[in-house]
Predict the 3D structure of the following.
Amino acid sequence: MGLQIWCPVIADAPYQRVLDVSVVAPQSWRMTRESEFGNVMFYGECAGPVGAPLSFTISYVIKRLPIAGTLDPSRARSLQTTQLFARTLGLEQYVDVDERTRVLARHVAGDEMNPLSQARRIYDYVTGTMSYNAAEQSWKGSTEHALVCSVGNRNDIHALFVSLCRSIGIPARFVLGQALEAPISGEEACDLCGYHCWAEFLSPGSVGFRRMHRARASMTSTCCSAISN
């Protein structure tokens, strides 16, 4: 039996440019593109039994750009063409958009009609009611888990934020990324330390999609390279 390996590849994004990519792999490999979102994937395969550990390295030269733009509610406006953002307004397998989330989103937003201010209220609600604990996560990024347990990892917290934004007509999405910071001095690097994720919501007329970053309790930028949407 052979071995097949897939790995997401960091790509160009509005605030980053991939200047160079190099791959070192002991087996044959190629770059592919998955069909749903168009994300670039590394694909490698090794025929026959694998009797020893295999490793591959993908090295990048990336230019990160500052995330410009001020969160100014006076410039925000309601979304006019919802069809263009249907993917970021509907439900997903574990991200609910239903009567329960709509009622909760309307309650959280209250009498606020400005979409940027609504997103701020949703952010404050989510970060105020959810506790971060990776040991009590859903392993799915689940709205249901977030609502029932009020605890989880970043995936669960962001799932609730995305659900509530979508439930009130604000496009929102989950983004997976790779942290660029080196290991803390005196600590060893690990295989998963660079993994990171965040949520983004759309603010038409203001700054486009904006990051909601629970780990640092801010609606701002992070030192990460986006891999996929």
In short: The first strand starts at residue 3 and ends at 8.
